[in-house]
Design brief:
α3 crosses α5. The chain is globular and about 35 Å long. A 4-stranded parallel sheet has the order 1-4-2-3, covered by helices on one side. It is of the alpha/beta class. Helix content is 42%, strand content 12%.
Length: 133
């Protein structure tokens, strides 16, 4: 009965959409350059899950800033209701693909978000308990 196997995955929005992407969610605050709305094949654009503009600008996708960025972005995610929205969305899906525009597949906010969501699914009672209305 173990169904929570890789529900969340990340993928560049510039990569070709695939049948096994499942539910496709853009997790960038800004629309990616050169991608038409039709080519994106989006189910949802969840701008609110992206890092705050000041944090994104401070990070600047510079590897030497990544550890600090990760720490601050995770702190933002702790109080972000969009996290619960994604976790709830995953309950009804086999796969949720988190789409991002950054060039580096390792040094980007989507990778941090993926790890955070995986940790949240493992400890969902802890996180969901804090998110009350």
């Amino acid at each position: 009965m173990g169904a929570s196997k890789d529900v969340f995955v990340i993928k560049r929005i510039y990569d070709e959409a695939a049948d096994d992407d499942g539910y496709r969610v853009l997790v960038d605050r800004l629309w990616p350059r050169g991608v038409s709305k039709d080519d994106a094949h989006l189910d949802l654009w969840l701008k609110e899950i992206a890092p705050s503009p000041p944090l994104r600008k401070e990070f600047g996708h510079m590897e030497e800033h990544f550890a600090d960025f990760k720490h601050h972005y995770e702190a933002e995610l702790e109080s972000n209701p969009a996290v619960d929205q994604l976790l709830d969305l995953a309950d009804g899906k086999n796969r949720v693909t988190l789409l991002y525009g950054a060039k580096d597949p390792e040094i980007n906010h989507a990778k941090v978000l993926l790890e955070y969501l995986e940790d949240s699914k493992r400890g969902s009672a802890h996180r969901h308990g804090k998110a009350g209305k």
